## 1
Amino acid sequence: MGMGFSGFMLLFNLYLKSLNFPEGRIGNIISATTLGTFVMALPASIIIRRFSIKRILLIATPIATFSYLMQVSVTQYHLILGAGFSAGLAAVFFRVSAAPFFMRNSTPKERPYLFSMQFALMLIAGIIGNLLAGFLPGIIKKTDIPTVISYRWTLYIFGCLVLVAIIPYFLIKEKPAGKIQKFKIHSRRLILRLFLPNLVVGVGAGLSIPFLNLYFKDIFHTPTRLIGIFYSGQQLLMITGLLVAPVIAERIGKIKTVVFSQLFSIPFLIILGISRNISLSVGAFFIRAALMNMAQPLFTNFAMESVTPDEQPFTNALLVIAWTAGWGVSASIGGYLIEHLSYTIPFFSTSACYLASTILIFIFFRRVKDKIPGKL
């Protein structure tokens, strides 16, 4: 699934650009997908409390595959929007179910490593997917077909690759969810404090991160194969950060690790906004991603351990909603700003949002004592 998703996401914006869609419309299409995720996130959290997660994933996977294939089978703007919305509805189950599934099937000592390793394995698959996405269009284009068709056929390949995830899903053995009790929220204030930083990060990310492939294409006229290599290199560094993060968290705690990693990523965003040197921009692209993304699994792990087991699916759904709602709204704004102004303002705005999120995390949780593995 990681190979399919990463390859599809790398090329989809470039494919839309080859269809002469402006950045504003591309941003709207991104927003449609995140709107589907936003709408379904809370219902999904209720569904996974009542039904087998394995069964849910086996149903959601073909729906997501069909939606992605539909997005590249039509060229009408509104049909692509609709297919993107449908893809968001199905894909939310992969995100909402993971954390509760891990909490249900692991020990406290295993979890920081499990969350980081799961993220790292997706990135390894992403490296392969991005490399393939960089080179496959060129290989297909050697048959003398137009660029847009080579993108389309490559996207078909990656859409179908998502469907292969059904095989490992069939092999899952899961513990039962236990007796379902009437759901009550006991930690309203805590959940709100977990929600707000994720919302601010989502708003910031949506302004610029979905357009990084277009950034290299527009600013530096980078060929697709090199963009694929850049994304693969980025994910390789992200894996390193994710594997190091639990070790750091054992020494200083999850919250301090999250605060420092997010804070140190901000200067590299600013470099992306002002640099017109490709070597400097690629270096900033690598380091920013490694620092920012090493925080994500640790914050999710911290959130799951901070609430009661019955609240975990609901809390995880709210975290997904916060991030995707922010991303969905701001992607349209980011596309508009890029189309009519430049890439600089979105990158600076993302930096401001990341700083605000880091400050919120520090204020809300600086006095919270982390549950450090081995010291529970």
Note: The mean pLDDT is 82.
## 2
Amino acid sequence: MKEQHLHNEKDTFLAQWLAGDLSDDELKALVSESDFKAYLKIRKGIDAHEVLDTPTAASFKKIKAHISQKESKVKPLHAKTWLIGIAASVVLFFGLFTILGDDIITIETSFGEQRTIALLDGSEVILNSKSTLTYDEDNWASERTINLIGEAYFKVKKGSTFTVTTENGNVSVLGTQFNVNTVNELFEVVCFEGKVSVNSKGEDHILLPSKSFRRINGHTAELWEVVENKPTWIDGESSFKSVPLHYVISALEAQYNVTVNSDTIDQHIIFTGSFTHKDLDTALKTVFKPLQIRYIVKENRNIYLSSK
């Protein structure tokens, strides 16, 4: 009975809070910290209801029907009781939604797009085109971990360890600025400020400012110095140093939303250079003319390559 009484009391507090009769601070003083965090998630879920996808639609309809039944059975003077019913239904629904992982934040970029993301601790990420990062918002305070596919430039606020995980290796820092590029079997990390720890294929490397690490196709790690103070792609130019041509082609496709047909050429030719993000024809000339590779741009943004 006592447990049931506490449950009903919590429902009442939640109903009052959702109705605006209790402030955040007032609710926080009445419930436990874990309950308060759970209620914040409920409100967040309500405010962001448009993100609910098709698999949850049937459940949401059932809850709406359940709420409607309660509404028809109450009198206007008992609006709080009706609201408690809504709160209980919302708790059930968003509780299930939380189990499915609503705290996992996913951010993606499209062709030729860059996005700047402000993280919860004040750190900043600039995400390059056709890239994806994910992180657990709920655990961010205790574990600053981001999963990256593609390329991103990080400006990390000092604090607990900040880790970038990729399929090709992990990067850990406390507070610094660095770039990570992980595409297929390419894994490249450049430190611009502070100190970066890189773990790849069971090997650990420490990078200081202007130092770079790279591993291609699982081969021996390469270390060298860079002269730039930030990634060139942020200012609209992709740069490469001694990389197989197929990585350059992938970068062109990501920036310009084109399809490059390269079956008739040697895609493992080593390329050093750069291309602009502002003009496709200029970019194609810059990459393929020095390699004596012909290119033809056809309809539907298809580009065909052939050797001269």
Note: Residues 48-60, 70-82, 90-101 have pLDDT under 50 and may be disordered.
## 3
Amino acid sequence: MVENVLQVFQNKVTLHNTKRFVSDKEINNLAERYGTPLYLIDEKTLHNKLLELHNAYKGFQGDVKIAYSVKANFNPSILKTFMKDGITFDLTSLGELYFIKQLKGNPENIVYTSVTEELEEYIEVLKNGIKRIVVSSYYGFINLSKAANIINIRPKIMVRINPEVGVKAEVRASYRNGKFGVPLNGGKIDSAYLIVKSIYNSSLLDFEGFHFHLGSQITNFACYVNALERLNSLINKLKKEINNFSINTLDIGGGTPVFYNDPVPTPAEMASIYIGKLNNLASCHGNFTLMIESGRFLVAESSIMVSKVVNTKEYNDHKIVILDTGYHLLLDAALLKQEYPQEVILCHNDIYEMNSNDKRKHSTVKNIHLVGRLCDTLDVFPISKVSDMSDTNVGNYILFYNIGAYSLVFNMPFHCQTKPPVLMKTIDDNFKLIRKGTSHEELFIEEGGLLS
């Protein structure tokens, strides 16, 4: 039945159009003023993607909350934009907590999910008034119990489970013996069954619910159905052994796909596959708040990177197009071979118009290769199926679309490269600088150049 539904929705999928929120003239003006490479972010898109994701789950018969995974992009202006919408923030480090604190974020709107689950970390989290915490190990449960006793705060605990179901995704997070979460059952202490029972036997903690995350860029949503069925079995087992067992929150993580190269469903089409299962869980086990985590989906389509063609060379029927950027600014192009949609924009600068008679400008080649400025063979940008690279000539701009997730946060100084500036197009259609570009002098100092 699930596979039939999946096939129906896949037949309806159409190619998403890339989101262009700046004109050619604006790109030329901004590139001339700030240089390239340059990141551009659209505030309206951030609000719209949050609304789209929330509306996708309107069929759930209960409260729905969206949690933004800060790891995807922690730029303060993006965080402030989401704060206006009253969103929940999913944090995984004390560094992310520092950013939210500096922006006066409400601790009630935070879920803290640690990987290391250290005692000192939990003490700091509780000191800052965060009460919703996800534990992913028995050792984490012990450390959180100690921290709660020290700080004298009674936190609400969610247990991160690893459903160990098959997942078709660009990045899988659920598989047997995986890094994240704990198996549902088993004789070992690191199992959801034993940790939940330990929470109920604790005088320091309250059980809040369950959390799981199956992967990123999920393409077949039967995995959610399978995960919820396995969770239902665990809940039935716990209800038989714990008289007052109940669930207040169920966090089903992220995985909502973003368009890069291949067609993807909308969040509503995705949710339609398993919304019935969620309602059945609520009907059988009592109402709960459904939490949807998202990092990539909420921010990816909000952002464009502007780069410039600085050199080309041709041989046989191949053309090598060299850009003034590299994978140090779009690392997933190398790690995941991410095929970001690209577009060529003509440069209006007179200097480059002088090259209009260059015979290479009008040559026809079958194979275009976009490469970066780094001295590394991995510094090649896969070209999306929707991209037209026929006008890749020196001086023209190349736009990379849907780069808002895991690009700014992966910026690295390989080859002494500096961070480019970031601008946001605000709700009132003005551009404002939200991150200054760094200089080589600042990088030298940061790397200890002035230390004796």
Note: The domain at 43-299 is CATH 3.20.20.10 (TIM Barrel).
## 4
Amino acid sequence: MKIVQPPLLQKGDFIGIAATARKVSSEDLSFALDIIEKRGYRVILASNIYSEYYQFAGTDEERKRGLQELLDNPEVKAIFVARGGYGTVRIIDYLNFEKLKEYPKWICGFSDITALHAHVFNLGIQSVHSTMPVLFSKSEIAVQSLFDLLEGHSVNYTFQSHCLNKLGCSEGYLVGGNLSVLYSLSGSSSQMDLKNKILFIEDVDEYLYHIDRMLMQMKRAGFLKNLKGLVVGGFTDMKDNTVPFGKTAEEIIYDAVKEYDYPVCFNFPAGHITDNLAFIHGKKINLIVNKNEVKVFYTENS
């Protein structure tokens, strides 16, 4: 499978801001719009950007149309999804990706946007798992990592090892995102073939038993058996019942994959954490998990 990298951004390029899930306000976006323009880019807002329909940024049709216009606009070189929440999966089957396949562009975001990352990977196009405009004010480091990738700067990550890590080294396409969204894509056209991939997972505000249930489903379906590696980001604000489940999220994940012969690392600096560092979804990485540290760096020309 050939995975295409969209063109790197050049100063003066247009960046589209989409709203595919929860609603946003002009106040939510003002900081990010200022940052984008100060970095030398121009902005095009989706037609539904400030629309409201209960919790959503407009009806399904409005959100679909807003994203479709950005996908089809040849001047837009990257699309930043304004925020997550829930809603992208409701419109994804009604989008036309022909223009994106003809003229690839970066789609950037995380959480609910995992559905888009998975779908465009199946089309053979890289994207960026990253912070989103409503969070730009929270972390300069996260924003910088996003633009570093989009502008072609070298980005490698080294971080401290975790007591549950499984040591080893591997090479493969780094794919994945929010565990709950990945779980929800099972059996759909957006489900990725995870064989020989390095899987990244993260989640927020989930019950521990549900983390276990999702992993058991993925394990029973064979999704975890033939990975090249597992990279675990933030599992933030986990919840438990009155009668404790008895394991942390990290212990649940470790137990699900401990029998497999591939490296596993925890505490990768991405997900629902303050400094949510960006990575290219669908690009080959080298994963090296040592006793004291973990190194993640990209394979050239992948």
Note: The chain has a mean pLDDT of 97.
